[in-house]
Write a structure and sequence with these properties.
Layout lengths: L5 H4 L9 H6 L2 H8 L19 H8 L6 H6 L7 H4 L9 E4 L5 E2 L4 H9 L5 E3 L9 E7 L18 H20 L3 H22 L2 E5 L13 E5 L2 E6 L2 H8 L2 E5 L7 H20 L5 H23 L2 H13 L6 E6 L2 H12 L12 H8 L5 H15 L20 H23 L1 H12 L1
Parallel strand pairs: 3-9, 4-7
Antiparallel strand pairs: 1-2, 1-6, 4-9, 5-8, 6-7
Amino acid sequence: MPPLLWPIADSKNFSLDASGVAGFFGGEEAITAMATVHLYRGRRWLGWYNSPGSYTIAKDFGRISKSRLWGGLFPGLNHDPVVAFKLDVNSGPKYVASHSGTVMQQTGHFAHLLTQGTDDLTLVPLPATRTTVNSRIFIITVPEIAYEDLPLQTMSIHHAVFASFPILVSFSTCIFSALSADWYCFAMILLGIISSGVTCFIIGSGTLGIETVKNPAQGSPSGDGILLTHNGVIILKGKEKDVNAITKGKFSLHLKGAPEYTAVGLCSLLLEVQFLLQLLLIPQGSLFGQIMFLTSVIASWAYNSFLASLDKEKLQRKLFCDTIKLRQTAMLGFQAGTRTSMAAFACFVLCEDLPRPLKGIEPMKFLLEFLPNKTLVWQKWREQVVAQVEKEEGGMSIFQPGDVDMSGLNSDEQKLLTTVLQDADDAYKGYIETRNFRRSSMISEKS
């Protein structure tokens, strides 16, 4: 069949030779874009475009497969699927449970996501006589989670509009190459479409879920506790099984063919074959065919770059919160002027609505987590805060200098104690002033 576009197809004095570039160019963007395949509904059906970076993708995802054959073709440490797709790569802050006494030096991926998400909350300022370091306090009421019926709420299909761009460009350039009788470039664009589409479908067919300790021991106390961040604290309130989703939870990803993941290995092998064939055959094509090939690669790279630019942690956080039905209104933010005010306020909130005298909870342990100083001044300060906590809620403040035994302290230490007692008094005032607001929020979330 003679070419329909004679003048352009006959330009053989110049060659772009883009074959080598196509295997490496845009590889990182393509890998990052592929990591979103499980976050969007129907995303696995939208990989039918000539994606660049086939060699880079093959080397990265080939290490998911576990056998001697795949280990030889794709050497290196094997990746668990959730790690390969950046679904479980970060640890959360230290967690201290208020009732069970559990202390976790590192929490799970969901705790990390939740910690990062607090940056978007509006902070309510607490009374502050002085300000040294603005310390942030967040109170999160964890909803009741029905683990037996917990489908993961993937994102909407609106992204399909954007995916149509590289798909249309890839198929159009493939058709134009055929019309110009450039069968080399036609075949390579078509192979790129097929290899990318098949890989996206196979990988995207995995089942994404939530993995956590769903059934704690019978008789376990409340799961209330604190996450200690570098500039504040997150107070979690809820049942043990529900709080576990945050402190011990992470995404799970089950791909077909576990544990060898042969299908993923075959997809990676197909991508490597594509890369080698591009090296051999694209230089044999006409100038027009090479332009068509390059156009499809650039359009696909632009779409991959768009997906790579999305905040993956924000997407994962929304996915997690939507799944467990943790709404924005269940997260309250406050700002204290000093770390001492923050510690006292957090202690008051943790012991809120508990019968007095307190049983099964040690306020002193929490204060030591915030302020472990062992000097006499801080010992007296902690004892005074505990004494206030032990009193009936709503009672008078006992943070005036006359309420504390100053014996054994020199004049400078007495001034310091008076200052930090004022911080505690500010925290107690803030606790009383925000009590109705906090309680109404908790009631609305539990109803």
